[in-house]
Structures are given as structure tokens and as C-alpha cells.
Design a protein that fits this description.
2 domains, six-stranded parallel β-sheet, 239 residues, two-stranded parallel ribbon, Rossmann fold, 10 helices
Length: 239
């Protein structure tokens, strides 16, 4: 069983899922922060593996004129607004810090719940959910992708980090401890506060050579270690 979410931190609709985890022969975990909680339940057949990316979907490409017109921007964010709850408030508070910059937010109508509190987001919001193909195209048209994770992630690295790197957009990631192990030479730039998010976004927009250097180094390590093909092979060798 591969866990995409922390089984101790799921929505009520999946309230019995933990039983399934408890009786699985092997539990594959992409977040080291979940491991102690699983071991508390004597779940010890644990394999740690980052999520990685599927390079058949995420890869550098040359967008056409219409795609550039639709997606071109300095800062790109794609994802749900999470409604008016703790996850949505956190996501909106962070992304709102980038308001006023050239930014596009593609997402569902759940973002509109946050507009009374963060009205500047309306200037960047586009009510459209994107296909995987369009996510890759959009990343090829933009400069920076800020990755903000949900509160179920403790130490883990979001799949959007790997996907963005594979698409060769500069990823500015919310800091999580597993990043230090997966990208030990600082290939991925992180932020630890909303003020630092804006500060680093502005800095790397103004320093193209440094931005491209991080893209090149991060893409190299992802292609060498964190593609789906390589990670699945590693998992199968441990089963």
C-alpha cells in the first residue's frame, strides 16, 4: 500500500482507512514524519520512498503562441482553494503574499471563499482546473512555482516539487525536513515564512542566472533518482 496522505490525518469520509493500513503487508510512505505514528500501531513493514514524478507527463517543452498567451506569467500556482478552513486559510495567506507580482492562480471555485479575507487574490485568480497536460504546459510558460503543502504533510516533499522540476520551472518550496535528504546540495530553494516566500520570489525573478542554475541542478537529480521508473524499481526490490 502506497500512502498519498497521512492515515492519521484524513477527512471523515475516510475515517476507517487506518484499519486497511494496519493490515497491509507493506506500507510505502513518502513522508518520514508519518513513520513514528505508524510504528506506534506496530506497523513495522514500512518502506520509505518519495513520490517522485512521471516524466512521461512532466518534461520541458516548447509551448506555442496560444499556450504562451494563456499561461505566461512570472509566478504560477495551480490547485484547489480548500474551502474556508485551516488548510485554505494557510494556502491563501501564503499565496496572497505574492499579490501585486505578475501571478496567475488556476483553480476551483473554492478560492472564492477566501476573497473576503484576501481580496487581492481576485486579481490573480482564474476559475479553471487544469489537466495534467496543461499543468506541464503552464509550467513551461512561467518562471516560478511556489509549492504550498497541506497540513497533513509533516516532513515530506510534495509531488508538485518533483513535477515542477521535471517541467523545468523554478520551484520555490515550503520547507520540509525531507528536502534536506533528497536535495542535499540546496538544489531546491525553500521558504520558511510568508515574508521569506515573497523575498525569495522577488530575488529569483531578478536573478535569472541563479534561477536557471537551480533549475538545471534540480532537474539533474530528479532525472537521476526521482522518476517513477527508478522509484518503483527501488520499492519492488524491497518487497
Amino acid at each position: 500500500m502506497f500512502l498519498g496522505d497521512d492515515p492519521n490525518y484524513l477527512f471523515p469520509g475516510k475515517k476507517t482507512f487506518l484499519f486497511t493500513v494496519m493490515y497491509a503487508d507493506k506500507v510505502i510512505v513518502p513522508d518520514t514524519g508519518w513513520i513514528d505514528g505508524l510504528k506506534m500501531l506496530d506497523i513495522n513493514s514500512i518502506i520509505y520512498s518519495p513520490v517522485g514524478t512521471d516524466t512521461s507527463f512532466f518534461f520541458p517543452m516548447n509551448p506555442d503562441a496560444d499556450e504562451i498567451k494563456k499561461f505566461s506569467t512570472d509566478i504560477l500556482f495551480i490547485g484547489t482553494g480548500y474551502y474556508l478552513n485551516s488548510w485554505g486559510i494557510k494556502r491563501s495567506a501564503l499565496i496572497n503574499e505574492l499579490s501585486g507580482l505578475k501571478m496567475k492562480i488556476f483553480g476551483d471555485r473554492q478560492w472564492t471563499d477566501m476573497f473576503p479575507y484576501y481580496p487581492d487574490l481576485k486579481n490573480h485568480y482564474i476559475n479553471e482546473t487544469l489537466s495534467v497536460k496543461d499543468v506541464n504546459i503552464a509550467c513551461s510558460c512561467a518562471k516560478i512555482y511556489p509549492v504550498v503543502v497541506n497540513s497533513g504533510v509533516i516532513n515530506g516533499v510534495s509531488t508538485r516539487v518533483f513535477d515542477g522540476i521535471a517541467s523545468e520551472i523554478f520551484v520555490l518550496a515550503e520547507y520540509k525536513k525531507d528536502i534536506d535528504n533528497l536535495f542535499p546540495e540546496g538544489e531546491v530553494v525553500c521558504f520558511k515564512s510568508k515574508s521569506e516566500l515573497r523575498e525569495k520570489a522577488v530575488y529569483y525573478l531578478n536573478n535569472e542566472n541563479e534561477r536557471k542554475d537551480h533549475i538545471t541542478r534540480a532537474a539533474k537529480i530528479v532525472s537521476e533518482k526521482y522518476t517513477a521508473v527508478k522509484l518503483i524499481k527501488n520499492i519492488l526490490e524491497q518487497i
